[in-house]
């Protein structure tokens, strides 16, 4: 089902990018399948986005999301600080406008061997990941935290759907850099979590919505409305998790309600603001917050 949606989406976006101009009033946003972006999916399914002329597109991987944002000339993208930094190097007018969540176990390294076995391995180790995404710095943090700099890694670039089948067919030592909800299927195939943003990983992983200064000013009212809709969606999640899940599950690959509830415990919502301690970490990382709505 996800692949069918994806094919239709890509065709539409290609057509959009081929137009001389897209409608001035529509706010076009893209996001990938991540539990922290589910308030966007909920708002879409409830029809709330249509009321404000906001169009949301969704894809599987972070890298694909960023590529389409650029090629289709969309107005905003959901991503982590890594995607923000990638775009900022290309266009210094890119700014964060909304913070959605902080990963607290939602990003992880999984393996078909124990961590001790990986540390003892003398041969090459396969690593499946979305290499042009936050997956790459997450894995570098894993290497650093567990002193694996002397190991030989065979990096295999793959989106989260494809790596689930490819990685689980491997019999040799194999690691996967992934995020919820994709970890649940890997667990069923015998992979275990070796490290996550809830324990041994030190990397701060934030999710937000990013745009350019010019698009921010052109769509400010819609972006303010989006902030309110996200707050409403998260409140709906707290009020009736099952109803919320039924709305967003088409966007979360192979996610059962039980897996969905488990995934929620791996993120911290930031829609109501950040703590002083987190603000200090943002300042230390030179992450700008002055334009946040």
UniProtKB/TrEMBL annotation:
User: Where does the UniProt annotation locate this protein?
Assistant: Periplasm
This entry carries the following GO cellular component terms, namely: periplasmic space
- Name of protein: SsuA/THI5-like domain-containing protein
**Gene3D superfamilies under this entry?**
Periplasmic binding protein-like II (3.40.190.10)
Q: Name one GO biological process term.
A: alkanesulfonate transmembrane transport
Q: Which UniProt keywords apply?
A: Signal
What does the sequence similarity comment in the record state about its family? Belongs to the bacterial solute-binding protein SsuA/TauA family.
């Amino acid at each position: 089902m996800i692949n069918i949606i994806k094919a239709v989406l890509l065709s539409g976006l290609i057509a959009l990018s081929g137009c001389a101009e897209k409608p001035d009033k529509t706010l076009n946003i893209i996001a990938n399948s991540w539990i922290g972006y589910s308030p966007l999916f909920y708002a879409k399914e409830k029809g709330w986005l249509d009321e404000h002329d906001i169009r949301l597109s969704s894809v599987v991987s972070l890298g694909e999301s960023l590529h389409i944002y650029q090629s289709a000339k969309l107005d905003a993208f959901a991503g982590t600080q890594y995607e923000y930094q990638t775009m900022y190097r290309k266009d210094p007018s890119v700014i964060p406008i909304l913070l959605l969540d902080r990963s607290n176990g939602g990003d992880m390294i999984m393996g078909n061997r124990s961590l001790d076995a990986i540390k003892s391995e003398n041969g090459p180790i396969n690593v499946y990941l979305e290499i042009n995404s936050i997956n790459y710095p997450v894995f570098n943090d894993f290497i650093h935290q567990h002193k694996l700099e002397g190991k030989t890694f065979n990096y295999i670039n793959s989106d989260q759907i494809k790596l689930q089948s490819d990685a689980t067919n491997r019999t040799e030592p194999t690691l996967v850099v992934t995020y919820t909800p994709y970890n649940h299927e890997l667990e069923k195939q015998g992979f275990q979590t070796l490290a996550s943003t809830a324990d041994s990983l030190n990397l701060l992983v934030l999710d937000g919505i990013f745009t350019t200064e010019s698009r921010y000013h052109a769509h400010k009212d819609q972006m303010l409305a989006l902030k309110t809709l996200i707050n409403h969606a998260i409140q709906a999640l707290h009020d009736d998790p099952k109803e919320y899940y039924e709305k967003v599950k088409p966007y979360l690959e192979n996610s059962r309600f039980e897996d969905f509830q488990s995934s929620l415990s791996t993120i911290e919502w930031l829609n109501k603001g950040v703590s002083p301690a987190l603000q200090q970490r943002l300042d230390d990382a030179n992450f700008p917050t002055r334009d946040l709505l």
